[in-house]
Amino acid sequence: MNLIAPLLTPATTLLDVSFSSKKKLFEHAAELFAQTHGLKASDIFSSLFERERLGSTALGYGIAIPHGRIKGLQDAAGAFYRLSTPLEFDAPDNQPVSLCFVLLVPKDANEAHLQILGELAQLFGDEGMRARMFEAASPSDLIALVAAWSG
């Protein structure tokens, strides 16, 4: 079952964007989710930033999955970023991050949260899939690619 594709829309799939820091990326994601889900950007930023302070959400291979629990959020929400300038993320392999999936889950969504994170790790662990993500020409193409993925 693909839990990731339903989280993406053309508005939350950003290709070839650039940020000067991880903090700027989190600020952008917080504003994006605030607009698309009617949440407070400050709550989202705080959740993402606090989680990152516990330890890097970078997986290696240029991938990061920043995530946070948000009070008042009804369902999981996601945003995909393909960065034109890789960001330093304190990854285990010391590689900067180029592909980033920001995941928000409701405050109490423990099992769903873990299922989505596990699926994201599988998706990004697929070397061929990572290559195709870099080649996707549009947000719609990237969403179709993720939707067609079966793990």
UniProtKB/TrEMBL annotation:
Pfam families assigned to the protein according to its UniProt record, in alphabetical order: PTS_EIIA_2
Domain PTS EIIA type-2: 6-149
Molecular function GO labels: protein kinase activator activity
Matching CDD domains: PTS_IIA_fru
Entries under PANTHER family matching the protein: NITROGEN REGULATORY PROTEIN, PTS SYSTEM FRUCTOSE-LIKE EIIA COMPONENT-RELATED
Protein name: Possible PTS IIA-like nitrogen-regulatory protein PtsN
Gene source species: Thiobacillus denitrificans (strain ATCC 25259 / T1)
